[in-house]
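Deliverable D5.2: sample structural annotation.
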Amino acid sequence: MFDRSSDLEIIGLDGIPEVRPGDDLVGLITGALERRGLLLQGGEIVVVTHKIVSKAEGRLVRLSEIEPSPFARRLADAWGRDARHVEVILRESARIVRMDRGLIISETRHGFVCANAGVDASNVDGQEVLCLQPIDPDASAARIREGLRARLGITVGVIISDSFGRAWRNGVINVAIGLAGLAPFADYRGHRDPNGYELRASVLAVADELAAAAELVMGKLARRPVAVIRGFQLTGTPGTARDLVMDPTRDLFR
């Protein structure tokens, strides 16, 4: 089950235009595959940034339409931020974990703990438009997977990625916030290493590892929001990105 190929190929797809609400993401992806001359194979993994999923699903907010609450205005005044932006973050938060030095760490309705409830101003008209996370990223991944199956006649895994910070580490990496058709983990517990030691706590978040690896070719500024991963064996029971969220009873930091 855990024999992995020694080769992994990650291919970024160029030529996907600016995505707008209502756009056919599957059509845009298959069009980019055709222009690249790339034949998607069954069992491969398609990684899609949440930004284009959110745009296609209309998860955009115009600041001109936001009326900040008194609480948002107080925070914005204290931190020198736009009160409307703060208000959107508060609305997208199921719970505030911590606020300090102008940064809001919150728990989203999906259960993700991240900065600013995942509200993003990059790669949109950040002066007046903010991008929110998809309402149900796992369902979004499943729709893309089914759309690719219907158009291409193949079954692939789909990951929807977003950039998250990490406790104890500087910098952000891409993680899986939506998942369809692949297992989120490789669970080595109960297996023995080459020296005979029984592994007791080794559960690798392979969906996050794949999302992070894909970002190396997607980049933040390259306008390359989709990548194809080849050579990774889809093993284990398919799950969802919600499986990656730690149960609060085991979380020592909340």
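Annotation notes: The chain has a mean pLDDT of 91. The chain is about 25% helix and 25% strand.
The annotation will be released with the project's public dataset once the embargo ends.
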